[in-house]
């Protein structure tokens, strides 16, 4: 492997040799024979190759007082000289340094890689029924694939790697008859495209585009079908494939391509709903995470998933937790899987098709059960958020909530919620605002909703106005800080900071304050008793309906009229503001 290449040391030169005496004595001696040639004597014919003087033990004290040699055949001084020369040789050999990883190296590596692919294919075709004939070439190919991991340290070579056709060749190995080879290829592709690799956008894209052109997605999907996750190696292969998909989804354009690939999406949906899997495995959880990424990317992806019955499949995954949170003591405790499933659903119900599928699959009923009996850590807050997303811009959803008895559940949560400022409050207010906007006028469902606000001596109105004060106070602190900062900026700097300031105001609760004021405006417009009560509550803090009018006017100015929803929202707000006088 180029990344772990070992340098071979040159053979050590023989500087000294001594001939052993025939009697086995290790004392050096000279035979007075005129026929002897200079130099060491050859080994005996029956010698096993281990000849020459053996090294003296480290604690050898064989030299006499004058430094003459006895046991080792050399003096102590000569031994030190030889040790120094030997260590110097090894040091010189290592000074050659590692091989330079550059374009020339890549061209040689790519050529060798292609040869190994061709050789293996040739031998497999020739000796199809005799694996022993091609097993060595397969091992060579396996090593060649793994050696490509060093490219992740040199991402500037990605364009050349793609240009040489090696990226396409690597992808083609996903179709190799040996699944181990295919898994190795997937793992390397996952390493090369990992977000931790410091690749520039053009370099990363050059590699990924070459892989996609070589039918990476199709080959990945076909590999999923032939990998058996009861086998540890195959299970790891699926994990690497999912990791590769996550890497690819970091590009919005490619994420759209992934989310609209129906065979791929169908696999992911099947993977999270495997009936024989009693515990939530790592790959099941990973599949849910990737689905959450895909559905949050674009409307196109959400439409694709809805068409594949994703809403019903995901509801089935969360249904077992309708009356509890996942058990922390269980070995299968995987809260992330539940959260990702809710995340997927929250994105899917943002489209009209998703809302329709949610109602047909009895999603509203399931959420209401969870709000009433579910676990407080995961299922309750997640189902409330899901219901808030589902209710937006949907008269059918608002009506369904009322007909299924949701008013009692929602208003009980509203009154019992001890944390005034937070996600629970914001989602409840969001649902109330949607219901007041989209429930048909004079319908029984609308009348029942209005009655809930005014019952028990307007206690819910009092709670709503109290929430308004708290959110207004939080926003007021941020607005004051922004104003102080604005005073130190010139006009151009203020324009540059507009988005930053708006983000700060949102974090302080601007959206929830606006939603509260819309709820109060609807109640003022439709019920005289509610109008009088709200005016009285505001007067307790020397306020009047003008504070509501100011907030709603700000909303009107910020509405984007580019779409139908925007135009309808502006028309609704403009109507409401006329009642705030």
TrEMBL record:
Residues 77-186 form the Beta-catenin-like protein 1 N-terminal domain. SMART domains: DUF1716. InterPro entries: ARM-like (IPR011989), ARM-type_fold (IPR016024), CTNNBL1 (IPR039678), CTNNBL1_N (IPR013180). It is found in: Nucleus. Residues 57-66 have a biased composition (Acidic residues). It holds the Pfam family CTNNBL. Residues 18-71 are annotated as: Disordered. The keyword Coiled coil applies. Keywords: Coiled coil, Nucleus, Phosphoprotein, Repeat. This is Beta-catenin-like protein 1 N-terminal domain-containing protein. The lineage of its organism: Eukaryota, Fungi, Dikarya, Ascomycota, Pezizomycotina.
